[in-house]
Write a structure and sequence with these properties.
Strand order of the largest sheet: 2-1-3-4-5
CATH architecture: 3-Layer(aba) Sandwich
Number of domains: 1
Length: 197
């Protein structure tokens, strides 16, 4: 993969879905908060697309990463694989494992600095448009943990981070939820030394 050699400064690409994109937050989401915190260095790129699954992220990954020449990559995705959200097939969990594994492999071909995030818990009682079961989220996280261990990537545990009051619709974080995700991600990046790439 040819990279953009004009970008010589440190960059971090954060790939994901609508939660990465920052919907339901007046400040643009947890990634936007990271961008404001770091200002210019490292430069944070928000590559969240609503509705994206691991396989859809994988399809756009090469072009997105090559254009930004990342020194570190963060992957925060998975909940869109839950059967109730996009009518996934019975093989949804197996499909997720395969596509997530491939996505992590792609990321590691770009940089050895890869951080994966667990899927945050959901509140089934208050979900509106989307529907994901908490048991499904736990299965996704078991798969993410296993893949992180397999490839020795960094892992940020976020399952228990949010409560029902931190969710706008039982699934997507509100302002309070995004603030918690921002703080957790910031602390992890600093602990890894990625704030000084």
């Amino acid at each position: 993969m040819r990279t953009n050699t004009r970008i010589t400064w440190p960059t971090i690409c954060i790939f994901g879905d609508s939660i990465v994109r920052g919907g339901n937050d007046s400040q643009g989401g947890w990634v936007a908060r990271l961008q404001r915190h770091f200002l210019k260095r490292p430069e944070i790129y928000n590559l969240g697309v609503s509705g994206d699954t691991a396989d859809l992220i994988s399809q756009r990954f090469d072009a997105e990463a090559a254009a930004r020449n990342p020194r570190a990559i963060v992957i925060a995705a998975g909940v869109n694989h839950c059967p109730g959200i996009h009518g996934m097939p019975d093989t949804w969990l197996e499909d997720f494992r395969k596509s997530y594994d491939e996505l992590v492999q792609k990321a590691l071909q770009v940089t050895g600095k890869v951080l994966v995030l667990e899927v945050t818990s959901v509140d089934e009682a208050t979900q509106t448009d989307d529907f994901a079961k908490d048991s499904e989220v736990q299965q996704l996280n078991q798969a993410i943990q296993a893949i992180a261990q397999k490839y020795r990537t960094e892992l940020l545990v976020t399952y228990d981070l949010l409560s029902a009051t931190d969710l706008a619709d039982g699934l997507h974080p509100n302002d309070y939820g995004h603030e918690k995700l921002f703080e957790a991600a910031l602390n992890k990046l600093v602990a890894l030394g990625w704030d000084k790439l």
